[in-house]
Amino acid sequence: MTPRDASALEPAELNETEAAAxxxxxxxxxxxxxxxxxxxxxxxxxxxxxxxxxxxxxxxERIHPDLVRADTPxxxxxxxxxxxxxKHAHLVPMLSLDNVFDRAEFEGFTAxxxxxxxxxxxxxxxxxxxxxxxxxxxxxxxHGRFVRGATRGDGAVGEDVTANxxxxxxLPERLHGEAPALIEIRGxxxxxxxxxxxxxxxxxxAGQRLFANPRNAAAGSLRQLDPAITAxxxxxxxxxxxxxxxxxxxxTHSGYLDRLRGWGFAVNxxxxxxxxxxxxxRFQAQLALDRSGLPYDIDGVVYKIDDLSLQERLGFVGxxxxxxxxxxxxxxxxxxxxxxIRIQVGRTGALTPVAVLEPVNVGGVLVTRATLHNADExxxxxxxxxxxxxxxxxxxxxxxxxxxxxxxxxxxxxxxxFPDHCPACGSKAVRPEGEVVVRCTGGLVCPAQTVERLIHLxxxxxxDIEGLGEKSIAEFHEAGLxxxxxxxxxxxxxxxRGREGWKEVSIAKxxxxxDEKRTVPxxxxxxxxxxRRIGETNARLLARHYGSxxxxxAQMQAATVVGSDERLALGSIxxxxxxxxxxxxxxxxxxxxxxxxxxxxGTMREIGNxxxxxxxxxxxxxxxxxxxxxxxxxxxxxxxAERLGAKVTDTVSRKTDLVVLGAEAGSKAKKAAExxxxxxxxxxxxxxxxxxxxxx
Length: 696
Ligand code: IVH
Description:
The protein is an alpha+beta fold and 696 residues long. The protein contains 25 helices and 26 strands.
């Protein structure tokens, strides 16, 4: 049976295995998007797309609470710092805000707060503050002196950007007047619209990358390793919150804002004290009108309960306070002309259409590019180069094309066709059935993909070449030393000599490490090729099924013929299925992939044969998994055990033959010990299931 595509199903339709797979996919995806957004200042998805994924994740977790992952995206804010700056642990975590979009949702917020506090009638006094989409920072003052400033990071630990913050105007080096011995002051660092446009002009003239929006520009500027560069960027600051304080400084938030002003901070002058939803709605509407005239971009209004003792009682739920909410504005829109549609090749070979636009100002941001997502979107919207289009920018996002504007009487250009070849390498581009994404099939030769593929090839679960990491691969690729997988095995000491950071000893070590891997198990060889959908497990299944490299290689060639016996046989391997067979056939259907595989195989000393697993070890036995496994989810482990003929149950009893103990295994581990049942740790389980040792 072909596995269903979990990502296309509603949360309620997912079975346990699919839900686990989907949560794993979402965790990885949200992590990547969050890193792109926070660490690289280059968002890959719109806010709306990100939020939708996060909501989907939450929905699945609600239905399958026992599948919630240790690294669940719901419990995370932002992304952890990626090095370069020292880490700084916030004394009080920096959290996020829940969003509302209309009056009803806003009243839901106040109603929840009132219910929580047991307040029946009384309106809550609120402070409204324009929500600037910059980046939040925490400033620590000791005895009135500014000693440390840090970004939010993951909410608990941020990056120490003290030196860069000292270049900020509007940040007092010393608090005026009386101040607590220790206080953390929080605020938003941002670029004014004018400063943003100016900065991008300078960037353009210098031939540098343009920033997508003021938020990314501010983040990029603050995270410069050289404070002199930050000093040249006119960043602004508004202070609006507090973290730890050694003594109370106010009884109300509005009183606290007054203290901030008194100490010498810039506080948003539009902040106002209000009472009730009615007043909030008026404030919201007024600011929506004034918005385009403000010198900085805002994407909504933050409403905070004024009374700090109530704030304290309300506390937090998850990653957001119960005492504050962000009421977001609807997205900003504009109309412009679509000049061209270009194809971008992602690192995984996904071809993404990008709209090239006649530059247009949308809420202070000059937009020249927009995402068109995929071929279906283009067809659905029926947009062609030359058309007038309406686009939307919602806060910190890649702008999107909403629709085509009809121009009666104006002749349109020809319908745009999605290319059937990769613009980066010329390989065939295919769209697997049931998917929206068109992919380049030149995995091993496409320059847009090679570096990622090569990194995968040498990674721990594949060839596991010690001392050859991402950095060296990228460096050697850049220098033209390695272009294809086999090139790695053809590296010579001469090629490395004279390269920065490479000495005789390290060169000899690397060459030896590479040479060692000329003997490789077939499963690792297959996995290392990085064929889509051929992960570690499937590589292992293939290796076992075909036994030897020669047999596998010959069968893959034959399986490229649709309807051939070999293709059918491939698809009917338990655990492989038709869709994966198609992926393999596509891969081997490309001559340059075949060449690259053969070339790589030619540099090997031995590709180890694979024998069927010792299934007798599991067949007919009753097995229980408990605790969390590091290399696979529990549902995946269960499915694997079942495939190998075991019976999987959830409770440990006298009938249990074997208990696999993951991390933090609790009562079941105790029970197993009491009953004298055989137990295995994760490594032992992997060996029993015939998987490679996790550490190579
Ligand atoms: S209060 C726990 N006040 O919005 C309180 N945040 O979506 C959290 N922001 O990370 C922050 N203006 O970067 C607060 N007046 C304001 C704000 C504000 C902008 C940002 C801030 C925060 C994000 C949450």
